[in-house]
Amino acid sequence: MINTAALFSTAFLPGQAGFDTETITGLAEWRLDVPVLFKLLIGAGTQAVAWPIYGDGEDCPCVLAAPMAQAQASWQALSTLMDRPRDAAAIVARSAISSLLASGQAWLILDCVQLIAHDIGTPEYAAALEALRAEAHALHSALLRGDRDALAPLLAAGSASPATGYWSASASAQLADVEELDAEDVPFLQGLEVAGWEEDALCYAVSAAAEPDVTGLVTPYGRWIVPLSQRYVDLGVYYADDGWITFATADASDAHGVLDLNGTVVLPPSPGALYVISPHLVQRIAPDGASSLLRLPDGALLMDGVDNICQRDDGLIDIERQTGDDDERNVHGVVDTTGKVVVPASYSSVQDFGTKKKIAIVSQRIAGRFLFGLVNSQGELLAPCQYEAIDSTTTSSPPKLHKNLIFAIDAQGLACMLTLDGKQAFTPRYPPAHHLRGVAVQSDFLYVVNDGMAWSMDFTGQLLEQFDTVENFKAAITAQLSESIGLGKKKPAKRRSFTPAQILVKADREQLRALATLLLLGDAALAARCVDITLEELADDDPEEEYEGETPEAACFFLLWSTAADALGHGTTLDWKSVDEVPRIARHIDLPALRDFSWAQREDGDAMAEGLAAIATHLAPHQLRLVNLHDGEDTYYLGVVRAQDAAAFSKVALQAALRPVLL
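RE: above sequence
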């Protein structure tokens, strides 16, 4: 979605008799910002009102409303101060604005909901709306006193100026979601070649048959973001997510510029290629290969001679300066998304910063070796690049913390711990006992070598306990690692499965009805119907199909549960990773007792076990028990039984070789 401001006209305000969302007329809009003209037209007589096209805004003030008569008077007063239109387009635009404001509706609405980065109804939202209201009042006051300086963006505005916005007599993007329509149903697309739908720009990419290389962008409601008359080529719409579109012109296809999502040129074309890096940065590569980093939208030069600019997992941006020698001698640095230098380009590598402790591992090539150090998020060197290794999960990760200390191996191969300010916690004396750093460092001690023996050593450098020879220690660790990743284990036994005929032969209707009745909270008639449906489907099934289960009875019950009970809202299947589905369990198991369930005590790191326990706790006062029909799998087959039926359910399930877990 592209955040957009819009002006609407309506005969009545929400809450007044006669208000009807079907009679709202869209007048004007502008993507990404609120134009100065929109604010001026709302003016001094504005009030905050509800706006029911937003669910949260049905009963809560979220837009600004002003009498249309005031808006008309403001436009007439402004027109007398504005420069004479310089071209036909400007004359038409001013005439259109005058006509639309005189459309007969009593109220003008400014909808800026999408441009306020807070939820409707919050104090922050109300404050932002009030700030916009104050700005509108100030502009209206400037108009009344004829303050040309305050009104400067409007007085020289052309027909397509960001100060005035886009005006339309027939269409508004804000009355409905903007989405792709069948091109055959859009009249103005007829006769054009539709290259495709550009989701990030919410536009069709189109061209005329006579000039297939010239591309335009037009919305489904007819707003031309990039008119074909501009004769633009090579549109880089894949940058629209960052708010920009790169382009060249048909007459100079090797020169590129930047448009915003309203189609306004923010960076005129110049020779070379452009690559948008972030909402605030673009890289220009000149025809001779020279690279520079420019700021958007003004195009100011931030940095020359930078290459291989790319986003990092920590939200920052890597930059590289080529030294002219081999790649290993190139230097790297980090900037933020606005281009501010975080780490100067003087390192061989800069790994990601941690999310809590803003520390990163850096490296430098020294005497033919890559040695590592630590920097903070201000770019200050905490630990000099004098370490053979610093502990991290991957070659791009931040340093791993162990009780706020960082494991490192110095240039002489000795193990030590570094404090968060880069100092050594003790003088290194012993090498690590294993080449895998994840083995060498434990939760509160290290494995090190002393006189050919493996020892444990605490984080202050004190030896604790001798284990074995280094060779035996390494062999034991290797065996443990092999076991943990499954090497040398026997292959798991193949799971049993049965054909429909095999299941039907063993199907015990009474046993199935008993289980189904318990799982359907005592509804015997519904249980009997579920059993009938399941067995009928099995009889009509592909005879070569196979279903898993320890026994045919178990396989049959899983079919009963999945095809009948689950479909009726009495059970569900959740993957072991589906923790986010736990708070929405009522969507999966449609029982009154679960409709008010919430997982209020959820914490970071909580897994399905904690989530299922929370559901079970919630069900307990309702005299209900949560059931996982088959334990020990990656999938949970969930149902609910009455507490009074729990023992009977377990007994019948065990007879069918099921192993349910009651929570």
